[in-house]
Amino acid sequence: MEILNFDNENEYIEKVKKINENAKKKYYILTMGCMLNENDSEKLCGMIEKMGYQKSDTSKNADLIVFNTCCVRENAEDKLFGKLGELKNYKKETGAVIAIGGCMMQEKHIQEKLSKSYPYFDIMFGTHTLNKFPEDLFNVLSNRHKIKDVIDIDGEIYEGIPIKRENKVKASVTIMYGCNNFCTYCIVPYVRGRERSRRPEDILNEIKDLAKEGYKEITLLGQNVNSYDGGNGYKFANLLQDVEKIEGIELIRFISPHPKDFTDDVIEVIKKSKKICKILHLPLQSGSTEVLRRMNRKYTKEQYLQLAEKIKKEIPDVVFSTDIIVGFPGETERDFEDTLDIVRKLKYEQVFMFIYSRRVRNTGRPNARSNSRRD
Q1: Backbone region of residue 342 per phi and psi (left: phi > 0; alpha: psi in -120 to 50; beta: other values)
Q2: Are 371 and 361 in contact (CB under 8 A)?
Q3: How many folded domains does the chain comprise?
Q4: pLDDT tens digits for 299-352?
Q5: For the domain that residue 16 is a member of, what is the CATH number?
Q6: 332, part of any domain
């Protein structure tokens, strides 16, 4: 995996900044979805503010309006289309630039619906072209042509993208992008691509800089963090150990692991750590082995319970949170009782539970269904 530098886009940041000079331009951003989307929005805000915009808490006075979308659940689509409908007259009156990006833009049927029913947007960008936002915005401001910047291949990793964090104590740091698991309910591998891990030195340098700025709590982000691969045998356990050593960081969290990849070396690092949070997210999705098989989760009910018990044995003060989907196609009352059985046994600290709704996707790739919050 080639690691690319963001420096090339700085040219366009300066060009847009010059256009906005002394204009006191404002921007509004609406983020939908998971912590990875929130992290992407922090990068968008970082770029936009470097281009001379000031953040607004409303779209009603904004010169640039950005939607960072999620396609995990259907209500996200409804929310986006509703917001776009509200902006039709505002766009006519003010000429504000409307940019729509994120996971939803990787879906062909969404692209088609936007072009047909909401043609007044200016920029459409996908998950793999976020880094080009300054260039896309410059081209729109220069010639007012509509920009569609979506690629249907795995993106590259860009380092050095500006980032604007609202919180001054807690920060999220993405360690990898994409997913290789292809759970049958989940669209993530189709819209975010296959797994690509950042270099350990880039991650650690980012966290060191955050520590110097006074940040105390770090959350490591990835679709499946415990399959992180930094190369040359450097795995997630190694990364956790190195983050632990960074002076100034007091609390370390990570989201989201996959039970099938929760290895003994990671458990051992957590056990010995004085900084890693002992509230562990361990996604279940279903307690039924048959439903798990149809979900392509690659573990059984018994294996999940064995893993949880192993973690509890090694880390007595651990507590778990989890994700659960109910009503998966073919789920019986007995299957649901298997899920309740695990909930009773593990006494989760927190459960993120969702009702399954069938969503056939037109991504330009094989159909996928999507319901889960994180993975």
Answers
A1: alpha
A2: no
A3: 2
A4: 999 999 999 999 999 999 999 999 999 999 999 999 999 999 999 999 999 999
A5: 3.40.50.12160
A6: yes
Residue with the two structure tokens 């990068």: 43
Residues 328 and 252 in one domain: yes
125 & 173 share domain: no
User: Residue 362: inside a domain, yes or no?
Assistant: no
If pLDDT is split at 50, 70 and 90, which confidence band does 5 have?
low
206 and 63 in a common domain: no
Domain holding 84, by residue range, is 3-149
> Any idea which of 23-32, 112-121, 154-163, 313-322 has the lowest mean pLDDT?
154-163
Residues 241, 142, single domain; the answer is no
Task: Tell me the sheet residues that pair with 276.
Answer: 252
Amino acid at 98: I
pTM, entire model: 0.90
Are 326 and 353 within 8 A, CB to CB?
Answer: yes
Do residues 301 and 288 touch, judged by C-beta distance below 8 A? Answer: yes
Whether 366 has a pLDDT exceeding 50, the answer reads no
Do 178 and 90 have their domain in common?
A: no
Residues of the chain above pLDDT 90, percent: 81
User: Tokens 């105390």 label which residue?
Assistant: 216
Indicate if 86 and 175 belong to the same structural domain. Answer: no
CA separation for the pair 335, 36 (Å, rounded): 31
Position 349 in a domain:
yes
In the DSSP assignment, the letter for residue 226 is: G
Do 342 and 268 lie in a common domain?
Answer: yes
**Most distant CA atoms of the chain, gap in Å:** 66
Query: 25-31 and 64-69 as β-strands: parallel, antiparallel, unpaired?
Result: parallel
pLDDT of 374 reads 40
Q: Is it the case that residue 59 has pLDDT exceeding 70? A: yes
Q: What is the CB neighbour count within 10 angstroms for residue 360?
A: 8
